[in-house]
Amino acid sequence: xxxxxxxxxxxxxxxxxxxxxxxxxxxxxxxxxxxxxxxxxxxxxxxxxxxxxxxxxxxxxxxxxxxxxxxxxxxxxxxxxxxxxxxxxxxxxxxxxxxxxxxxxxxxxxxxxxxxxxxxxxxxxxxxxxxxxxxxxxxxxxxxxxxxxxxxxxxxxxxxxxxxxxxxxxxxxxxxxxxxxxxxxxxxxxxxxxxxxxxxxxxxxxxxxxxxxxxxxxxxxxxxxxxxxxxxxxxxxxxxxxxxxxxxxxxxxxxxxxxxxxxxxxxxxxxxxxxxxxxxxxxxxxxxxxxxxxxxxxxxxxxxxxxxxxxxxxxxxxxxxxxxxxxxxxxxxxxxxxxxxxxxxxxxxxxxxxxxxxxxxxxxxxxxxxxxxxxxxxxxxxxxxxxxxxxxxxxxxxxxxxxxxxxxxxxxxxxxxxxxxxxxxxxxxxxxxxxxxxxxxxxxxxxxxxxxxxxxxxxxxxxxxxxxxxxxxxxxxxxxxxxxxxxxxxxxxxxxxxxxxxxxxxxxxxxxxxxxxxxxxxxxxxxxxxxxxxxxxxxxxxxxxxxxxxxxxxxxxxxxxxxxxxxxxxxxxxxxxxxxxxxxxxxxx
Length: 589
What we know:
By secondary structure, the chain is of the alpha/beta class. The protein has 21 helices and ten strands. It has two domains: about 15-325, ABC transporter type 1, transmembrane domain (ABC transporter transmembrane region fold, Up-down Bundle), CATH 1.20.1560.10; about 345-589, 3-Layer(aba) Sandwich (Rossmann fold), CATH 3.40.50. The longest helix has about 55 residues, at about 225-280.
């Protein structure tokens, strides 16, 4: 049956049981089925034994077939009831396990969105996918089997133990001595199994990382003839994965004969001592058959419980890998709470005070930068190579930690959900998804009218009309089916559809000719409204359309003013402008 609620982690996302009890209706339905199945299951052997004795009475003493048919009917009815209970148990347990896996993946995705980009930059996509898919599947499968075995093994063993004690306490107490020994043997290998399973999952992540790296860069790797080298590296990684996987499997499988042998010791006692009771006339064949059937089932379940323990010891390695990514106790939550409750009565606009910024390796690239921007302004930001332009764009995006203050309408922007929709960031990579142009521009949040309006402002209308399927044209992986200029303008149109208060455009015109650039700047200036546009570029002619220009050098703000005033003043801006005019003149000769 299809579920309509959204998948999300429970409130206590770091507790595995919270995922199980998130669905109480399904849990108690499967629990009821499990309890019913494993407590009434003893009726089958009992009625079967009674039917055998009733048949013996018919043969030996000429008794009526009534009791024989009665016990056969009871055997059939109890079996039917048990199968219905078993259906409920298995169906709803599978339902819980599948929904748990969805909740875990949703939690991992939520955590990824909440974490600062400075942390995510150090992550590898292949490793994250390995945790979201492989580790989650391992945990879900183990939880399903473990809970199923709680009913199918533990409760069943208790039921059979009680029934066997009713038949003969002496034989039962002697024969069950191997049961705790089997469980103890399973516990003795928990640490080696955990370590081997952890290495197996880590090696699987390494394979996924390499595959993702190879697929994403397959064009470049082929052009440089790296096929053989990449294949050799993949082979080495897969050999390691195979090694740890085999060692894990060997240890698990090597214990199975030990579990079976230990559990079988009790059966030898039952056959010997129970057979003696039959010979002495103290038990009938039917009684012996019923007892042996129940004790055999209990012995077999002992072996299964031990194997489930081993399975969970291995799955715990996967759960611990998931926990590392689910744990949000890294300061992010406190930042969100603090920033969302700040005073929002300050003047509208962007306010930057004493901003300093460092890359993840600790290298400081911006220092003590301050400026204010009012709504409706376009600010140009430039500087020589390595001056910190892209670093400032990253810092103002709110995705990376910084020192100082960056406020939009009084709200600190760092990792703050309250200002998520106030900022649109077009980074210098100009990333597009492999989906169609409609999705890449509108993100399924805008009407076609809004998408076409943004496309027109980004000088993309003519290009879209030339696409095979217009807005529905697939762009290919990272936009391989379109040109660099088209990719830039799609990203720009995406930013324009966001209705954000602040647009951060990092190098938006590097692959666009000067005429399209003029057209786009005119459109943005005309429709700016109360927005703030921060335009990062090395092409200074662009800044003639800006209200103000800021110049960076060595991570510091060294000049500020209009394009005309900076061109006429001595300084680095004038030097860069004259050099670009000279190069432009040479190109026109």
